[in-house]
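hiii so um. not sure if this is the right channel but i have a protein structure encoded as tokens and i wanna go backwards to a sequence. like what aa goes where. can anyone help
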């Protein structure tokens, strides 16, 4: 049984209609990242930030898992390999495809977080600045999403899984956002085989032992079919 750790990024959800994180002009859905994806932006204008994520939450809810999401779930369900999916994405398409061993290192749109006390709860479809925290009643509800300047979730668990893996596979990532961009170097240092499945060569493609390039809905199911054959 091989232990396989996957890292998935925006490229795996793009074919489900989820837009990638930032456009070439540095804007995210026509907003400055500093305004909608930082603690400082939330402090300045929480109403804008909540409205922005309400729209993203609605878009994610309307999207459907694609063939790449389903292929990873099928590989896990097959049971012949120990699979862990670490995703940078904040949508829930992996879960809806059937993946169970999953870490959202950047949080998820389906979660809410109290900026005052740290309590977490399921996010409603529409979050409002007047929403009280269920634990402390503060009006400080924010999306449970890791913003710029914040530490990604469950990093020690991710590092441990990487070092213990037999294979690390990166899917749909740009290779320029840390700490995830450093996973391939850490895996190689630990003697782990590495593979890139991406639309095009990433910034770190030279660090991988092998690579297959093309749309995620083609290269991921094809590779998984080979693993299951």
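sure thing!! here u go:
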């Amino acid at each position: 049984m091989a232990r396989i750790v996957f890292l998935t990024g925006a490229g795996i959800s793009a074919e489900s209609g989820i837009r990638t994180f930032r456009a070439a002009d540095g804007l995210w859905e026509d907003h400055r990242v500093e305004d909608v994806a930082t603690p400082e932006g939330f402090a300045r204008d929480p109403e804008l930030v909540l409205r922005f994520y309400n729209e993203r939450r609605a878009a994610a809810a309307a999207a459907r898992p694609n063939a790449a999401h389903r292929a990873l779930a099928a590989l896990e369900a097959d049971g012949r390999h120990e699979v862990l999916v670490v995703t940078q994405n904040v949508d829930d398409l992996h879960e809806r495809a059937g993946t169970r061993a999953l870490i959202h290192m950047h949080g998820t749109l389906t979660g809410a977080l109290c900026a005052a006390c740290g309590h977490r709860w399921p996010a409603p479809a529409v979050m409002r600045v007047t929403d009280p925290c269920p634990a402390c009643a503060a009006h400080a509800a924010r999306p449970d999403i890791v913003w710029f300047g914040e530490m990604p979730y469950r990093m020690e668990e991710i590092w441990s899984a990487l070092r213990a893996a037999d294979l690390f596979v990166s899917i749909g990532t740009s290779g320029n956002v840390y700490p995830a961009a450093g996973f391939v170097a850490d895996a190689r240092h630990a003697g782990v085989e590495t593979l890139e499945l991406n639309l095009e060569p990433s910034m770190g493609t030279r660090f991988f032992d092998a690579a297959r390039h093309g749309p995620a809905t083609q290269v991921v199911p094809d590779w998984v079919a080979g693993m299951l054959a």
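oh and The mean pLDDT is 93.
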